Amino acid sequence: MVHILNTFDGRPEHHNKIPRPRELPRAVYVRVSDMPAGYHVAAHSHDWNQLLYAIEGTMTVVTEAGMWVVPPQRAVWVPPHTQHAVTCTGFTRARHLYIGREVATNLPDRCMVLEVSPLLRELIRAATEIPVEYDEDGEEGRLIRVLLDQIKAPDQDKLYLPAPKDTRLARICDHLQSDPADNRTLEDWAKVCGASSRTLARLFQRETGMPFREWRQKLRLLHALEKLANDRPVTEIALDLGYETPSAFIAMFRKATGRTPGSYFR
């Protein structure tokens, strides 16, 4: 997982209607960006908050703390000075809201995926049409203030996968990131990690807040969302992720999200 932060792939060209700023001309600055499949932004940070919103396509955001998958009509909140890398698994239409540190929000100082309500979606769309140096005391400034009021932290960050710091756990997680279908148990991993299965289980709970099996299941869920966003067949996804039958995968997905894989992005 965290190894993604130290990689940089050759990036295809992408289209920005508004460039990245060196400093914010107003409290909120909005960029429009269309990015092709496979587009990768190496680890970087900003001096301001960022709300990264996917109108179309799916993005994966990685920091030292873990990984977030951002499906269409969701957004990820990135606080100032947070090193983060971004990868687009398919063609992605994104809206970047750069929000000054002085602007009060109800969001904490950590990354998280947010639901984008229909109202917030329309406010973001409207914000892309106003001048960069908008009138803060006029109609455009009022629109921005309403937009900021609509950015709210969720009760749970369901699309976040924490990254352990212990080197033995990191070895396991890095492998599963590249091969989520691996069904080895902690007893199996103990033979190659130099620690007992009990020690590994205790470390997983302490460093990720969840048991190993739950962590692996959530990893598979996030991989599934990336694949579903690219219109991959459910049967193919189930087999790729190590499930013996599509029905077993569908049951896991429904339990985790409350929806079937086929209906999630509708």
Strand and helix layout:
Blueprint: E1 15-16, E2 28-35, E3 40-44, E4 49-56, E5 59-63, E6 66-70, E7 74-78, E8 84-88, E9 92-99, E10 112-115, H1 118-127, H2 139-149, E11 160-162, H3 167-178, H4 186-193, H5 197-208, H6 212-229, H7 234-240, H8 246-257
Antiparallel strand pairs: 1-2, 2-9, 3-8, 4-7, 4-9, 5-6, 5-8, 6-11, 7-10
Helix pairs in contact: 1-2, 4-5, 7-8
What does this structure look like?
- This protein is α+β, with helices and mostly antiparallel strands.
- It is built from 8 helices and 11 strands.
- It has helices at 118-127, 139-149, 167-178, 186-193, 197-208, 212-229, 234-240, 246-257, and strands at 15-16, 28-35, 40-44, 49-56, 59-63, 66-70, 74-78, 84-88, 92-99, 112-115, 160-162.
- A 6-stranded antiparallel β-sheet has the order 1-2-9-4-7-10, with no helix packed on it. The chain has a 5-stranded antiparallel β-sheet with strand order 3-8-5-6-11, with helices on one face.
- Strand 5 (59-63) and strand 6 (66-70) form a beta hairpin.
- Helix 1 runs antiparallel to helix 2 (139-149), helix 4 (186-193) packs across helix 5 (197-208) and helix 7 (234-240) packs across helix 8 (246-257).
- The chain starts with 14 loop residues before the first strand and ends in a 9-residue tail after the last helix.
List its traits:
five-stranded antiparallel sheet, disordered N terminus, 266 residues, globular, alpha+beta
The Rg value, from CA coordinates, equals 20 Å
| Fraction in beta strands | 15-25%
- The gross shape turns out to be globular
Judged by helices, strands and strand pairing, the structural class is alpha+beta
Number of helices: 8
Mean pLDDT: 87
Number of strands: 11
Low-pLDDT segments:
1-17
Question: Tell me about the biggest sheet?
Answer: 6 strands, antiparallel
- Give the termini separation: 29 Å
Give the topology string: H per helix, E per strand: EEEEEEEEEEHHEHHHHHH
Residues in helices, as a percent range: 25-40%
Physical arrangement of strands within the biggest beta sheet = 1-2-9-4-7-10
